[in-house]
């Protein structure tokens, strides 16, 4: 497999891995983001919290290069993601980013193991190699004996674990996870968070984690809170 990443392996720790400044994004008349700024550092696990509708998912989509902001900048290393042509952006998303969406985005026709194997196949792995590695990742996230189920046959929690395995299988530099434990009971949620945090720490992967759950946020190195489309300044709690 090729690694076309432009991000150095031995980072200058004073420069953020990913930085968003002054993001604004409207959906029709709704201002989902206005003036949101946030930094994610190399290997950092950052929790993003905030009320429903405060703009968390929109922020994640802008940082991951899925949605272009109307205003502001998103800088990854020294690359302006918000200005990158679509072809280079999708290549960079494939090599450097793993995403777990809030509402499952597994491919309904593919089994669990084939969903997880897909990013490896796209990166040039053989089918046998991709399926073997996919199986290891499913095991790590506690999806055992369900490798051949299709998303429609899985519970919400199983589907979310398969999504996490798919996001991590290629060894991304950044994982974006939108409510990864939202559909799980607290024990299963804890197991998934432990697996995610352990994997991220082991490989130096940075994680941007959206959650409503204070117990989940406690796994993070740092937490930022969104309110009305902007980050609440430090020290302001009420
Ligand atoms: N595609 C869309 N079309 C129209 N409005 C949208 C769209 N996506 C988001 N919004 C609106 O933008 C605002 C921010 O939405 P966003 O999904 O970012 O919030 P959130 O903090 O992730 O909420 P939740 O915790 O419920 O997932 C909300 O008012 C929402 O209704
Ligand atoms: Mg959301």
Automatic annotation (TrEMBL):
Highest taxon of the lineage: Bacteria
Tell me the keywords, alphabetical order.
ATP-binding, Nucleotide-binding, Transport
Transport among the record's keywords? Answer: yes
Q: Name one GO molecular function term.
A: transmembrane transporter activity
**Keyword Chaperone attributed:** no
Tell me where in this chain the ABC transporter domain is found. Answer: 18-238
Q: Can you list the GO cellular component terms from the UniProt entry?
A: plasma membrane
Give the Pfam families listed for this entry: ABC_tran
Q: What is this protein called?
A: ABC transporter ATP-binding protein
Q: Which organism is it from?
A: Streptomyces phyllanthi
């Amino acid at each position: 497999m090729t690694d076309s990443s432009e991000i150095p392996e031995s980072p200058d720790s004073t420069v953020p891995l990913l930085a968003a400044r002054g993001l604004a994004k409207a959906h029709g008349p709704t201002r989902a983001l206005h003036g949101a700024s946030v930094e994610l550092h190399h290997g950092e696990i950052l929790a993003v919290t905030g009320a429903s509708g405060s703009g968390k998912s929109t922020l994640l989509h802008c940082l991951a290069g899925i949605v272009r902001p109307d205003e502001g900048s998103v800088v990854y290393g020294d690359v302006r993601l918000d200005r990158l042509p679509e072809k280079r952006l999708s290549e960079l998303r494939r090599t450097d980013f793993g995403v777990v969406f809030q509402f499952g985005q597994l491919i309904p026709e593919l089994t669990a193991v084939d969903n997880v194997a897909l990013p490896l196949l796209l990166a040039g792995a053989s089918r046998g190699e991709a399926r073997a590695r996919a199986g290891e990742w499913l095991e790590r996230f506690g999806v055992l004996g369900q490798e051949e189920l299709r998303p429609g046959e899985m519970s919400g929690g199983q589907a979310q674990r398969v999504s996490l395995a798919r996001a991590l299988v290629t060894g991304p530099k950044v994982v974006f996870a939108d409510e990864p434990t939202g559909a799980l009971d607290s024990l299963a949620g804890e197991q998934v968070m432990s697996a995610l945090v352990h994997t991220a720490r082991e490989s130096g992967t940075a994680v941007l984690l959206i959650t409503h759950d204070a117990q989940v946020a406690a796994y993070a190195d740092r937490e930022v809170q969104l309110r009305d489309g902007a980050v609440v300044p430090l020290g302001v709690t009420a």
